[in-house]
Amino acid sequence: MVNTDSKVTLDTLKNRNKHSILIENIRTEIKRLEDLEWTMFFLTGQRHISEFKEMKQQTVLPRRQQRKTREIVYDKLPKETIITEGKDIGLTKWQEQWTSSTKGAVSKLFFPSIRERMKTMLPLSLEFTTIVTGHGLNRSYLHRFKIIPNSTCPCRLQEEQTINHIIFKCTQLKNERRILQNAITRTGDTWPTPYEQLTRKHVKLLIQFVRSIDFSTL
Ligand SMILES: [Zn+2]
User: Fold this and answer.
1) HSE (CB half, 13 Å, CA atoms) of 75?
2) Are 153 and 170 in contact (CB under 8 A)?
3) CA 102, CA 19: separation in Å to the nearest integer?
4) 144: Cβ contacts below 8 Å, ≥ 6 apart
5) pTM of this prediction?
6) What does the DSSP 8-state code read for residue 70?
7) What is the pLDDT of residue 74?
């Protein structure tokens, strides 16, 4: 059994195009030992050592299985892989919390996937944040925090001024909405567009729409 911490060495051994002197010497030695009916194991880390012990306890392995165990295996990973995987685990955990949390209902509609969210640079203006989080300049929010006496939009619909109302219904934003809607339907997509499409595929158009809104009159 050959136990090594070097994944690079194992990778080099597997790569038939690599012919450095050291690697060639190792290959020659492997060949010599295998010719002497040795079964070679290339292992790294504690896990494979215990697997090897288990294997030894078993009765003689059939020839075919022996061949299989001769394959080069490793469980030590390069630092970059661990960092990438660490980030991935972190993101998965964050995603689980994000999905199960009862908070951020509006944000979750716009950003169901944290991975997708992290791919896009978004403006941090109060207006844009209001639209994608529901927290800020909309009457529904301001009323909830008792900053204003009621949540009704001043437009003709006389209904609660939610984010859904602002984007899809508010009669005061007819012109602004028409520009957004036309641009989206020109791409072949439908209106009303799902929230998560607005922040992904059509994010530039959404940013333009938000910029065109005069929040002081809403
Ligand atoms: Zn309105």
Assistant:
1) 10
2) yes
3) 59
4) 151
5) 0.60
6) T
7) 52
Angle made by CA atoms 193, 196, 202, in degrees to the nearest 5:
65
Please give the C-alpha separations between residue 161 and each of 64, 158, 167, 180, 197, in angstroms, as whole numbers. 71, 9, 10, 19, 22
Find the 217 Cα to ligand 1 centroid distance in Å: 10
C-alpha 30 to ligand 1 mean position (Å): 78
CA 101 to ligand 1 centroid distance, Å: 29
Could you identify the residue written with the tokens 């030992």?
A: 33
Of 113, 111, 112, 143, nearest to 129 (Cα)? Answer: 111
Q: What pLDDT band is residue 73 in, cutting at 50, 70 and 90? A: low
Measure the N-to-C terminal CA separation of the chain; round to a whole number of Å. 75
**Under 8 Å CB-to-CB from 148, ≥6 apart: which residues?**
139, 142
- Residue 158 CB-density burial (10 A; 0-12 exposed, 13-18 middle, 19+ buried): exposed
* pLDDT the model gives residue 2: 64
In the numeric block, which tokens belong to residue 168? 């899809």
What is the 98 CA–ligand 1 centroid distance (Å)? 30
User: Measured in angstroms, how far is the CA atom of residue 140 from the centroid of ligand 1?
Assistant: 11
Three-state secondary-structure class, residue 148? coil
Closest CA to 176 of 189, 167, 163: 167
